[in-house]
Amino acid sequence: MLSSLLVFWPLAGRAHEVTPTIADFETSEGQLTLLLRLNVEAFVAGIDLDNRSDTNSSDRSDDYDLLRNMPQDELEPMVRLFVEDWVPELQVEAGGPVLLQLQKVAVPEVGDASLPRATVLELTGVLPSSALYLRLTWPKRSGAVVLRQNGVPEPYTGYLLGGGRSPSISLTGGAVQSAWEVFQNYLPVGFDHILPKGLDHILFVLGLFFLSTRLAPLLWQVTTFTLAHSITLALGALGLVSVNAAVVEPLIAASIVFVAVENIFARRLHLWRPLVVFAFGLLHGLGFASVLGEFGLPQEQVIPALLGFNVGVEAGQLTVIALAYGILGYWFGKHPKYRGRVAIPASVTIALIGSYWFYERVFL
């Protein structure tokens, strides 16, 4: 049953994954400057980014792909027209509404069409002379945004979903969150990267699950994988280790293929499997670190942010395993034909998807 569902799983891997907008703001001499780094083609195409992990799931994905290949001089006028309608929904209050105006649009040249361009919009607005705080409401359908304050001591950093509203942020700083608040804010970031956005990580975890429904082999593998990716997640997020995503992403796809193929031929946990899973966990940790790098880490609360993200990732992985066990393992795991009719077909499907992703990330 699960293998049948996997056949219809989106095959785009990370090529069309929805990424959060980065919003950096600063106030000076009564003026607010807001810099948005975003995948503007998805916005212009009219894709609803709320609760969406991949643009391929939208009926406007063809328009999105055309925009990604459009030269910057053709795309920029379309961006400006979009901003005229969209900016009124981006509400800023500072003792009253702040009228935002578009100052600059920086659209990169077309590069690797398999990766989204990071367009930068510069918006400015005049603040009331008496303003001490501001609040920002992120428009619905706009996906997630990382909101970061600059130019003040103890700046604010927050994470909002479409339609979300920030707390009141002091214009002079001091709005830095406590360690517990940072931990809580980064929990959903980590979980969201597994469910629903981490398709490759989900398939890897399912590959671990389909070796055996017995608890001991599964715990060994999950513990080893967790330990490994926690190490490289921390090292990568702190900038101590850096590996090109063009190398990491194909290897992550290859790791999916490996565990799935081994499931087909192995009936138990061999001694080398934990070592292989540990090595692959190091790779997946680098993938997690690249995602966390997009969000940024609050300089004063690095450890709580890392812990929150990592716990969120673990919660997502455990949810995947719990769902797989609840749907299949509990009901059919002890059936004599479970391996032949469920585990092997599912592993073959996972291997085929991983192989496609490997080919896509290397050659397309």
How many helices? 11
* Overall domain count: 2
Annotation, overall tally of beta strands: 9
Mean pLDDT: 87
Strand order of the largest sheet: 4-5-2-1-7-8
The low-pLDDT segments are 1-15
Strand content: 5-15%
Structure, described:
The protein has helices at 2-7, 40-44, 61-68, 72-86, 179-194, 199-209, 215-237, 245-265, 272-295, 302-332, 338-363; strands spanning 21-28, 31-38, 91-93, 101-106, 119-126, 133-137, 145-149, 157-160, 169-170. The chain is α+β, with helices and mostly antiparallel strands and 364 residues long. The protein has 2 domains: 21-176, no CATH class; 183-363. It has a 6-stranded mixed β-sheet with strand order 4-5-2-1-7-8. It has a 3-stranded antiparallel β-sheet with strand order 3-6-9, with no helix packed on it. The two termini are 31 Å apart. Mean pLDDT is 87; it is low at 1-15.
